Prior knowledge:
With about 270 residues, this protein is of the alpha/beta class. The strands form three sheets. Strands 7-11-6-1-4-5-12 form a seven-stranded parallel β-sheet, with helices on both faces. A three-stranded antiparallel β-sheet has the order 8-9-10, with no helix packed on it. It has a two-stranded antiparallel sheet with strand order 2-3. Residues about 1-5 have low confidence and may be disordered. The protein starts with 13 loop residues before the first strand and ends in a 5-residue tail after the last helix. It has one domain (about 1-200): 3-Layer(aba) Sandwich (Rossmann fold). Strand 2 (about 20-25) and strand 3 (about 30) form a beta hairpin. It is built from eight helices and twelve strands.
Amino acid sequence: MPLDAQSSNAAGLNVAVLVSIGRHPLTARTRRADQDARAVEMALSLKGASVNLMHAGQHDSDHEEAIRGYLGMGIEEVRLLEQMPEADVVPVLTDALRASSPQLVLTGTRAETGEGSGILPYLLAEALGWPVINGLAAVEKVEKGVATVLQALPRGKRRRLRVRLPAIATVDTSAPSARQSAFGPARRGEFDVQPHASEADAALTQWQIQPARKRPKRLKVIKSSSARDRFKAAAAKSDGGGGQLLNDVTPEQGAEAIFKLLREEGVLR
């Protein structure tokens, strides 16, 4: 039986958690990001570990209030790497992680604001030369620079992995839920604001960002005289019919098939 995350022993482990600004799905108000909060919860569950929070972004009242949601989980201080709006945070986070030398870096799978592409952990891992674990569900133990972890797989399955540290791991909704943020600790927590030079994200400046709108779903016209047949047709699951299954192909052939599909769907031109 695997050890529960609450009993994980990681004495002396230096853990850095990258946190971002979240957005409530209904009210659109800023808040702590759910997946990042789960990453903080997982870091706090590692007994004997030193947990440090890091955020790269603006320092204003709205952002500060959202970050205090992490402080309310029992964190005394957040290191804030001050950046200009629409800045590329990869360089400043890479330098900060290289200087602080954590053994394990935890973060959410993707941000709730901004690009939300989920590619940041992979860019950091590429720059630092560290391995990446996606879908981290639990850390079982850490011994002699090697972490034994559980990775979440589809349909509730888990896979045990052994990864040599330092490493970066992403946390999603398969990880334990975060504790509530307490008002007192959130107010008492401090910010270590460190101004850094900002590098503009050239690609982001060329994008046009607007709120997504739900499009009406086209209803299938069912021609049938009986109510039973109409209900059966409406509840039936339609087959895609346009998919293609690739087996025993080279990476180049798989990439070519994906590229062709994106061209046909109009994603790439």
